[in-house]
Amino acid sequence: MPTISKKGQLMPESPIRKLVPYAEQAYKDGKTVYHLNIGQPDIKTPEVALDAVKVHSLDILAYTRSEGSEAYRKKIAEYYHKNNIQVEHDDIIVTTGGSEALLFAFGSIMDSDDEIIIPEPFYANYNGFSTASDIKVVPVISKIEDNFALPAIEEFEKLITPKTKAILICNPGNPTGYLYSKEEIKKLAQIVKKHDLFLIADEVYREFVYDGNEFYSIMQEESIAENAIMIDSVSKRYSMCGARIGYLVSKNKSFIKTALKFAQARLSPPTLAQIASEAALSTPQSYFDGVINDYVSRRNTLISELEKIDGVKVAKPKGAFYCIAELPVKSADNFAKWLLEKFDINKETVMVAPAAGFYSTPGVGLNQIRIAYVLNENSLIKAVNILKEALKVYKD
Ligand SMILES: Cc1ncc(COP(=O)(O)O)c(C=O)c1O
Questions:
Q1: What is the pTM of this model?
Q2: Nearest ligand 1 atom, CA 244
């Protein structure tokens, strides 16, 4: 029998998707499942983007350049200029989603056993990408009690070893909704400069910032132009998750030159999706204003409904569209399975993502879930009510 690689065996399951077979069984049993587990927004994709692929003039669906079409990258640079980020098209590689951008970044800057410091809880697939790249995640723990604020800078410095190559942050954060302040970004900039590290910022939720707070990108810190690598994506910004378009952005020329070799190996990002994504850059501001209003009222509803449940603790997100909730259960994993298998109200139940998979420290977050507020308010209210009633009868 041929054997599977150690790496393959170590690859973690996605906590967001691992309960899918239980959800499928629930559908077969005739239940409606409210999906709070996955960041797939129910928001409509901008019409300009959809129209561009309905009426294109292509005769051949050919490859594009490995770094993405030049016309598209020039427009992406214009988008960044409007957002006070001074990068040019040569500083951008178009990738197959932010996911591929992360893999290219890891592959370009780290070797086997190198270390990357990440505040946890973090986007669960960072664990998967790190395993695939054979690198070690060193977590800095942020806590629900502190609303997931960045730990003191000394905590980062304590963890730096000769193997440390990078610090990775997600801003605004998935799964916490935490938004880094300008001061925090400046402190991180000081550390990476002092210790000669890369600072990778996953800014795929940059547009989703609430309550009048200001977003500050690592790319605005000119002093770390050589250290900074930004990950971006059209998936959430334009509700175009299925387009599979993201970008890798950096002013560090040798990094971009290296990442381009990874991009060449996979030939090209998807051509039709680049056409849609280029058109999406012309989405009117009114679209975003409407979307942000929707997310703010969804967040407010979700948090106030969750706070009414006995024993539930929740941190209020300032951005993105997720929150972590602590439940009065021992194992959120078992609870999430039980919800799909055994519990319903009038044939309706809820799917949530157990949060332990968003940590790399074993045993942390076992009683937490991640909730994505990607459903309309009525559905959110019904879903939280199901959680509330379920917690009344659930026995660990
Ligand atoms: C924080 C974060 N980064 C990256 C991604 C990857 O997104 P995509 O590959 O769709 O661009 C996601 C998707 O949910 C995410 O939440």
A1: 0.94
A2: 10
